[in-house]
Amino acid sequence: MTSLVSRLLKKSVISPVIQWQNQRAWCSVVAGSTEHTMHVRRRIESTKAAALLGGGVKRIEKQHKKGKLTARERINLMMDPESFVEYDMYLEHDCIFGGSLSMAHAKKICKIMDQAMLVGAPVIGLNDSGGARIQEGVASLAGYADIFQRNVNASGVVPQISLIMGPCAGGAVYSPALTDFTFMVKDTSYLFITGPDVVKVADDMEFFEIMPNYAKNIVVGFSRMNGKTVGMVGNQPKVAAGCLDINASVKGARFVRFCDAFNIPLVTFVDVPGFLPGTSQEYGGIIRHGAKLLFAYAEATAYGGAYDVMSSKHLRGDTNYAWPTAEVAVMGAKGAVSIIFRGKNQAENEAEYVEKFANPFPAAVRGFVDDIIEPRTTRRKICQDLEVLDSKSLKNPKKKHANMPL
C-alpha cells in the first residue's frame, strides 16, 4: 500500500511540470504529427495519475489512518486480479467533499447501471458517503433520484448488491435500501437518515380518505376531478411537521401501488421537510420502510403529478408544479449553513442560502418542475393535465417481478 502511494506521489510531482511544458509548446505542435501524439499521450498519463490520487495524497493517508481503504483499493481487493475496467476516469468532479454525491458522480453511477442492465451483469455498490452534496442543492438531489430510478428499473432484471463501508447518510442510504442484498462492515459502517450535523381541489369537496386515523402525517384517499376518479397523496404539516416516518411511508406506498395496479391517476401534494430523524425511527427500520414509498412511486406507470421520494420528475412524475412558496433543497437554511460554514456568519450565510436555494427557481431552471403556478389555478391545471394524459402508455422493463424492499 505504501508503494502505491509512493508511485502516485512521484507521478503527482511530475504531472504539473509536464502539463505546463506541454501547454507552453502546444501552439507550435501540428495536429497529426509525432509531437502532437506524444503530447496527447503525456497528457493522458498525467490525467490518469491525478485521477488515481482521488482527493490527493493527504486524504489517502487520512483514510488509511482510520483503518480504511480508498475506493480503488477496495475494488482491487474484491475483484479478480486486473479484471476491473474503469469507466469515465476523465470525468471531472469539482471536489471530493467527503464522498458526497455530485451530479458528475451520479452520471457515472447511472451510466454503469444502464450498461449492466443491457448486458445482464450484476451491480455491486461500495458505499461510504455523506449523502447529497449540499453545495450543489437540487442538482445533487436530482442525481440521487436518477440513481433510485435505475435501482427500481434494475430490480428483478439484474442482481444488485450493496456494501456499506463507512458512515452513510441521506440519499446514500436509500439506494442500498432498494437493492437485493446489503452488507455492512462491522464497527465502521453506519446508516443515517440525517447526518449528526445536520388545497381543496376535488369535485364538490368530495374526498374519501383511506386510513384517516393511522399515520396522520400523510393523507391518502380517492376523489374525482372532472368526474374522473383520482388517487390523492398529501403530506400533513399539522402532524409531525409533515415528516415521513415508518408508518407514513408504508401507508403511502401501499396506496400508491393500489392506484398503479388499477391505473388510477395519482395527484401528489408535497409539503415535507424530509424523513423523521432519530434513533427510534432508524432502529425501527425507517430506511427499509421509507424505500417502499420511493419504490412504489418509481415503479408506477399510472399517470399523475419529500422531493425525490414523492413523485418527483426523476421518478417519472408526468407533470410537476411548484407554488411560489415552494422550497426544493437538500435541507433547510439553518442546518445547511451550520454544516457548510460551521456557524461562521450564520445570519448572513443563511440569507444567501435562502436566496439561492429556498425557492422554486433552482428546480424550475433545471426542468425539474414544469411550471410555477398560483395556488388558485391548481385545480384547473391538474384537470387539463389529466385530460391530456388519459391516453398515456408506459411500460416497465420486462421481468417476472421486481424485488421490492418489503
Automatic annotation (TrEMBL):
Residues 97-200 form the CoA carboxyltransferase N-terminal domain. Residues 176-404 form the CoA carboxyltransferase C-terminal domain. It comes from the Eukaryota. Pathway: Metabolic intermediate metabolism; propanoyl-CoA degradation; succinyl-CoA from propanoyl-CoA: step 1/3. Its EC number is 6.4.1.3. It catalyses: butanoyl-CoA + hydrogencarbonate + ATP = (2S)-ethylmalonyl-CoA + ADP + phosphate + H(+); propanoyl-CoA + hydrogencarbonate + ATP = (S)-methylmalonyl-CoA + ADP + phosphate + H(+). The holoenzyme is a dodecamer composed of 6 PCCA/alpha subunits and 6 PCCB/beta subunits. This is Propionyl-CoA carboxylase beta chain, mitochondrial.
